[in-house]
Write a structure and sequence with these properties.
Structural class: mainly alpha
Helix content: over 70%
Low-confidence stretches: 250-257, 279-290
Distance between the termini: 107 Å
Mean pLDDT: 87
Strand content: under 5%
């Protein structure tokens, strides 16, 4: 094996290692990967003399890349006004870097440096004779193992990801990656690589012998992609497969496209794409603006306008976004779910223009250079273009590039496409060597610098107040948006302003808002308490009652508690139910009317409040609320609840109307037939009730409960023979049932069949000798 192939094998080993360790997203794995790639690039410059020629555009891009990160690490408060103001609120002064989190920005610097090193390594190896087909074959070899593991994972039901823990999405394939969407993005690029290899073989003489294998590999990747259930990954793969023949335009494109599409169709069919199709069907254009990802995009973009030039710091979205996360959007959002919006938030317009502009220039230059090549040679730069575009499309809805392993695959495509471009400068080892050194240093710094604030915060949490405060200030100097540090600092100092600052760092954090809100209530600052508790109740209306139980004073004005409520029907409904439970049912009803609008979305709130009224014994008010609910949104379940409420008030006509409406709306549901029969029976319309029970038995002949109801009605109507028949049928389905047995005894006694009644009672007592009721009946028969 010659040196280029040896170095390429070493790269594949490093890349495979990143995949094994769930994508190498852990900080130490990012640093180790960058350091390893820096060493590999340096070795390529030493072992393969001749240097590397870089174009002016590439040098300009790299210089701008370094400049953006340098500016973010410099203490330029004028470019980072929001971050500087926050540090001032924490009481942290001095010359501190502008980024919102020095550790996360260093991590991202190391990660993006690894991508640059990978692209340059591919450029160097291609210059030294490494074939494009060898590059793609190596990539596909590793990805086939990844796809194979994903299929085993899914079919064998493997519950954990190696070195990570439980799979976040057990119902979808994700391989060794944590996110199924990242796995899908990697598979989409694998689809393009294997399809290009199939095309290249179909262009040659031995078409069937050499092309079918890679076409089948394409199908295999598609199977894995479909099993990931990722819509974005499917779109990315489609973009790549469509672009590949369009960009190639060689004489074998039609045959290659047909073979790859045929194999892909078979693979998708075998993978059962109905679930993936179902996920596409979930899309509703009318509800797009309510979609979680859309809300994250828009709130992230709005926050980015506060520091539009250089953003909050590359890589800092996981912490810096929290102050602008919508209160009713729970959970920890680590990314904007749109790489371009994320670029704008983290690095401002400078970073966004640099990356998107650099990508545009690369696409233009690679496309132009590929036109000079012969048809068979053009397939490989076409594959690079198609693979990059597939990932660019997927990045609209996801963030594969934040997973080191996925980003390295993208970088290889960049290097592969760049290898066909004409360099505008002479080859040199100095520039590439400096880049290798800087990249390795970035990785090494991430490994050795003690600037990760999380261990410091963990230490502070277990420390005495004075030491905890000092450690938290150190952590906040590195990451002023770290809510945990601010929260612990507030507890350590017990300063009201620090509690308020901590609450503003993450309005959507329910636990933080509850802690701060209750602390301000204790301090008598009801305005600040309301600000935090409103956020809590907007996100979690179920917390209204538990929190108010702790704050409740019977002589306190209700206005004080109502001031804590957001403009949320669910929160007001929960509050109204709580007040009713405290005996203030008129006040609760008034609060419900003021806070819960009569809209279809409020229907569940009406139902829950009606239950609370029933629990308080206010049956009339409950029935009235349920009637209002039916005007808001009518459905069989609501009609049924209304019927039962009116029946408890012995308003038989209204109960019957509601029960019949439920039955008409859902005629095949036996529950509503039985409900109508129950209401008719309670209203003493026995013959009509009997007809309804007969219909119910016809609909559900094996339902013992219905048979027992009809048998009891037969007894009320003195139709003892029919009652006995129903009780006997019930006992056949449920032998030994006590209620059916006792009912049968009573029917037999009324029919003067005392001997059979005695036999049934003796059987009941054999099963349960201590049954007092059965013993009493037997004694009465013996008199």
């Amino acid at each position: 094996m010659d040196r280029p192939h040896l170095l390429w094998t070493a790269f594949l080993a490093v890349w495979a290692g990143t995949q094994l360790y769930y994508g190498a997203v852990a900080p130490w794995a990012v640093g180790a990967t960058t350091l390893a790639l820096g060493v590999l690039l340096a070795l390529s410059l030493i072992l393969l003399p001749g240097g590397l020629a870089l174009s002016r555009g590439t040098i300009g891009f790299l210089a701008a890349f370094v400049a953006v990160f340098a500016l973010q690490f410099l203490p330029l408060n004028v470019l980072f006004p929001s971050t500087a103001a926050l540090r001032h609120r924490h009481g942290i002064e001095g010359l501190l870097c502008g980024t919102a989190d020095a550790f996360l920005t260093l991590r991202c610097l190391s990660q993006f440096s690894s991508y640059i090193l990978a692209a340059l390594l591919v450029l160097k190896l291609r210059k030294e004779g490494l074939a494009s087909s060898t590059v793609l074959s190596g990539l596909c070899g590793v990805l086939l193992v990844q796809a194979g593991y994903a299929l085993v994972q899914q079919f064998a039901g493997l519950a954990e990801i190696p070195f990570y823990g439980p799979r976040p999405a057990p119902d979808a394939a994700s391989g060794t990656f944590v996110g199924r969407n990242t796995f899908a993005g990697v598979m989409a690029m694998g689809v393009v690589a294997s399809a290009a290899l199939a095309y290249s073989r179909f262009l040659g003489r031995r078409r069937l012998e050499s092309g079918v294998g890679w076409a089948l590999a394409t199908a295999f990747f598609l199977v894995a992609l479909v099993m990931s259930k990722s819509r974005g990954g499917a779109v990315g793969a489609a973009v790549g497969l469509v672009l590949l023949p369009l960009l190639h335009r060689g004489r074998g494109s039609l045959a290659g496209a047909a073979a790859v599409l045929a194999a892909g169709a078979v693979g998708i069919a075998l993978a059962d794409p109905t679930v993936l199709v179902g996920r596409f069907n979930e899309l509703d254009t009318q509800e797009l603006r309510e979609d979680t990802r859309w809300r994250i995009w828009t709130s992230t973009a709005a926050a980015a306008t506060r520091q539009p030039i250089l953003g909050f710091g590359v890589g800092t979205h996981p912490h810096a976004y929290h102050p602008w996360q919508p209160v009713d959007l729970p959970g920890e959002v680590h990314h904007a779910h749109n790489e371009y919006v994320n670029f704008f938030f983290e690095g401002g317009a400078a970073w966004l223009l640099l990356l998107v502009g650099g990508l545009g220039v690369w696409i233009a230059r690679t496309s132009s250079a590929s036109r000079r090549l012969q048809g068979p040679d053009r397939i490989f730069p076409a594959a690079a273009l198609a693979g990059v575009c597939a990932e660019a499309a997927h990045s609209i809805v996801d963030f594969d590039l934040r997973t080191t392993s996925a980003g390295l695959l993208f970088a290889v495509f960049i290097g592969l496409g760049g290898s066909v471009q004409r360099a505008t400068r002479e080859a040199s080892t100095r520039g590439p060597g400096l880049i290798a050194l800087l990249g390795a240093v970035a990785g090494l710094l991430l490994l050795v610098l003690p600037i990760d604030p999380e261990p410091t915060i963990d230490d502070a949490q277990a420390s005495e107040p004075e030491r905890a405060a000092r450690l938290c200030r150190q952590a906040l100097a590195i990451s002023p948006y770290n809510h945990r540090a601010a929260w612990i600092l507030a507890r350590a100092t017990d300063e009201p302003d620090r509690y308020a600052t901590a609450a503003e760092l993450w309005p959507a954090h329910a636990g933080l808002q509850q802690d701060v809100g209750l602390r301000f209530w204790e301090l008598g600052d009801k305005a600040r308490a309301a600000r935090s508790l409103r956020r809590l109740f907007e996100q979690r209306p179920s917390e209204v009652e538990p929190v108010l139980k702790g704050l409740w004073r019977r002589d306190a004005p209700l206005a004080d508690y109502e001031a804590l409520l957001p403009e949320s029907p669910s929160a007001w409904g929960a509050y109204a139910g709580f007040v009713v439970a405290k005996g203030k049912w008129r006040e609760g009803l008034d609060a419900f009317r003021r806070g819960v609008p009569e809209t279809p979305a409020s229907a569940p709130v009406f139902d829950a409040f009606a239950v609370r009224l029933e629990a308080a014994g206010q049956w009339g008010m409950s029935a009235s609320i349920l009637d209002r609910r039916l005007k808001v949104k009518s459905d069989p379940a609501a009609q049924g609840r209304a019927a039962r409420a009116w029946a408890k008030l012995e308003a038989w006509d209204r109960a019957l109307d509601a029960a019949r409406m439920a039955r008409r709306t859902d005629p095949l549901n036996v529950e509503w037939v039985v409900l109508e029969a129950d209401v008719l029976r309670s209203g003493k319309e026995l013959e009509k009730a009997l007809e309804a029970y007969m219909e119910a038995v016809r609909l559900a002949p094996l339902e013992v409960g219905i048979l027992l109801k009809r048998a009891a009605l037969y007894g009320e109507m003195k139709l003892w023979s029919s009652a006995a028949d129903d009780y006997k049928a019930a006992l056949k389905s449920r032998p030994g049932d006590r209620d059916a047995s006792i009912g049968l005894v009573q029917a037999l006694v009324a029919s003067n069949d005392r001997s059979e009644a005695r036999r049934v009672l003796e059987d009941v007592l054999r099963r349960n000798p201590g049954d007092a009721g059965a013993t009493s009946l037997l004694e009465s028969l013996s008199r």
